[in-house]
Structures are given as structure tokens and as C-alpha cells.
Amino acid sequence: MAAALPTLRYVVASGLMWAPLFGAGCAHTPPRGAPTDAVVPADSRRALVPSLRDSLAALAPTVRQEEAQRAAACAFEVAQRLEQEYAPIGPPLFHNLLINLGLKKRGLCCHWTEDMLAPLQALRLQTLDLHWGVARAGTLREHSSVVVTAKGQAFEEGIVLDAWRHSGRLYWAFVAVDRYPWKKGVTNRPP
Question: In whole angstroms, what is the distance from residue 64 CA to residue 179 CA?
Fold first, then answer.
């Protein structure tokens, strides 16, 4: 036990020293006064499905209401499942640190995006397109998320679906007004 104590101190000290670098991916602190979404208990999240459905349906008159409903329900179900699967500890940046130290296996923003995109793609949506959105690509503050647009619509007019931002509590906003500078990225597994 005595030998384990210095190792634990080393891991904690190293983690604190390198935290800004290891945890920086997906980093963001909202500016003062920026709008934030409400943190809603898991059992109340289903009540938000109609709101997301309506936002998706409003992307264009060509979006079918039933597709918007299926996509919204799927997004909330997957976010809740991933929250249980990843069991995030603390805020997302702390969880990122644990992953980068090898203490947790999954839960970076690219994992949330990958694991949310696959079930949404399985819906075979006809009036909605799914995209891998990336903000600040190639930097320590890189962040990725799913972006939904109406079929053929410009990426910049889409809606971000971000389950990482609040550790499994699904956040959504229009790309144009979200605080991240989203760009269209890849639609498959990240390198």
C-alpha cells in the first residue's frame, strides 16, 4: 500500500499539471450572459422530444413530421443510453481527462457523436440529412457533434445535437446561433 501512495500522488499531480492539455479537446466556457439550456432530470427529458421534433420539422416545409418525431425520440433515447454507458464523472472536461489518463474508455465528444450518429443513420431518414459537425478542427479545443439538416439544405442552416456538452443531457441549437463555430466534417468514425 505504501508503494501505491506515491504512484497515486504522481497520477494526481500529473493529471492536474497536464489537465489543460488533456482535457482541452471539446473545451468551451460560455461567455457571461450567453443563453444556456436547462438541465432536466432523465425522466423528464421525454417531455422535450416534441420541442426538438418541432425544431427539426421547421428546418424546411419538406421535412416530414413523423421523421422529425423519430429523429427527436432517437436522439433523446441514445443520449440517455450513452449517459448510462459512459457514466460521465463530473463536467465533460474532467471526464475527458480521465479518458486521456486511461482511467475511462469512452466519452469524448467524438465518441458521443459517433455513437449518436449510427442509430440516427439506421432510421434511414428521407427528408433529413445527418452530418458530422466539427468546431475548431485540429486544435486542442476541437469539438464534434451531430448536425441535422433538411434534405439538401446548407449545413449552416442545420441543428446541432450535442450530448457531450452536458454529460448526456441532450443540447440542441441552430448551427448559426450556437456558440461553437461549426463546419461540416466527416460522417464516419474519426481517425
Answer: 28
